[in-house]
TrEMBL record:
Taxonomic classification: unclassified sequences, metagenomes, ecological metagenomes
Organism field: marine metagenome
Protein name: Nucleotidyl transferase domain-containing protein
A GO molecular-function descriptor: glucose-1-phosphate cytidylyltransferase activity
SUPFAM superfamilies: Nucleotide-diphospho-sugar transferases
Domain Nucleotidyl transferase positions: 2-181
Short name of one Pfam family: NTP_transferase
PANTHER family: GLUCOSE-1-PHOSPHATE CYTIDYLYLTRANSFERASE (PTHR47183:SF1), GLUCOSE-1-PHOSPHATE CYTIDYLYLTRANSFERASE-RELATED (PTHR47183)
Length: 185
């Protein structure tokens, strides 16, 4: 199974951060958001990734080109011109990076990957698609319903906290509760 990750958008809603780095490279802990997305899929045995790059693509390319050096302890022996890695991350991913253009829209990015994906079923997510999803269950749902496309969606969370008021007294606070109207993917 292949996974397309749309990682080329401008990330305008986080512009204070994305002026310097592409949104998928924003750190969660000590790893980029993109790494966390890939880790979710690899937990379910899916390790063949196709990154649809665009805005600041060189930063994503450089991260994975230098992945071992950035995520390992190592010794450089200048006399022997050698590098010995002591610990390495346990990822065994295959990552294909395709520059799909800085201003290309979603459909255009997917079309740019057509020759890499072929006619087989694939998964696709956005470069900020960190979510608690059982990928096996999602794939089973897709197969069971026999549709061309399955979209995962949730009710969005509120942008604001909520006060519960009884007469003149605040009885409780709810921190940005989930809304029951509308869906987002």
């Amino acid at each position: 199974m292949k996974v397309i990750i749309l990682a080329g958008g401008l990330g305008t809603r986080l512009s204070e951060l994305t002026e310097m780095i592409p949104k998928p490279m924003i750190l969660i802990g000590d790893k980029p958001m993109l790494w966390h997305i890939m880790k979710i899929y690899s937990y379910f045995g899916i390790k063949d990734f196709y990154l649809a790059l665009g805005y600041k693509s060189e930063m994503i390319k450089n991260y994975f080109l230098h992945y071992k050096e950035l995520n390992s302890n190592f010794t450089v022996d200048l006399a022997k011109n050698s590098v010995t890695f002591h610990q390495t991350d346990d990822v065994d991913w295959k990552i294909t990076m395709v520059d799909t253009g800085a201003n290309t829209m979603t459909g255009g990015r997917v079309k740019c990957l057509k020759d890499f994906i072929g006619d087989q079923t694939f998964m696709m997510t956005y470069g900020d698609g960190v979510a608690n999803i059982d990928v096996d269950e999602l794939l089973e749902f897709h197969k069971k319903h026999g549709k061309l496309i399955t979209v995962t969606s949730v009710h969005p969370g509120s942008r604001y906290g909520e006060l519960c008021i009884n007469k003149d007294n605040v009885t409780s606070f709810k921190e940005k509760p989930q809304l029951n109207e509308g869906w987002v993917n």
